[in-house]
Amino acid sequence: VDGGASYRMHPIPDRIYPGIEMAGIGLRVRQVGTNLVFDVYEPRTYPQVLSVDGRTVKSVKHRRSRPRASRVVIGGPGEAKERRYRQLVDTARETRYGFCGETFRDARDAKDDSEPENVAATNATMDARGRETLTEAAAVNGLSITLAESSIFTYGSNGVLVGDKVTADVYGTQVTDTVNEARLELVA
Fold it and tell me: pLDDT by residue (tens digit) across 90-128?
């Protein structure tokens, strides 16, 4: 991860899972007795396109929000007047959304740059924290699709599991993504 990964005040799964997914692998965690068992696997791709017409897409919810910030001030190492600051600006975001919003990111964990050879490393760490903050404050476009089992689509070892990739036809556009959650209901 460029500039390292900050775990300060973040749940570890929030930092680990996106990197695992980008690497193209899957991870399942299950409890066996008092131990945690980690299963690493290669996600499968379901071969059929799921759709409303095929009665496998039950509902679709779309969520969209504007970005919360386009600029970030990063506070690095040092105290009082000696504290280092840097600023990152996402000009493309400002142009696209027509606003300028600023936020702050504490990066005191960056290396002390009192030695000249550490300045580049400190700046890289501070910039990485700033980019991370801008990513967290970016516009959110989310799509939640509720699927229903049918004769061609099932959940389980012979069908789809959490972590597998499926393609769904949503309003005439095919969307491929990872199954992130499964809620099973037994209808009697």
Answer: 999 999 999 999 999 998 888 765 666 678 888 888 999
pTM (predicted TM-score): 0.56
3-state SS track over the chain: CCCCCCCCCCCHHHHHHHHHHHCCCEEEEEEECCEEEEEEECCCEEEEEECCCCCCEEEEEEEEECCCCCEEEEECCCCHHHCCEEEEECHHHHHHHCCCCEEEEECCCCCCCCCHHHHHHHHHHHHHHHHHHHHHCCCEEEEEEEECCCCCCCECCCCECCCCEEEEEECCEEEEEECCCCCCCCCC
Distance CA 85, CA 106 (A): 10
Cα 169 to the center of its chain, rounded Å: 23
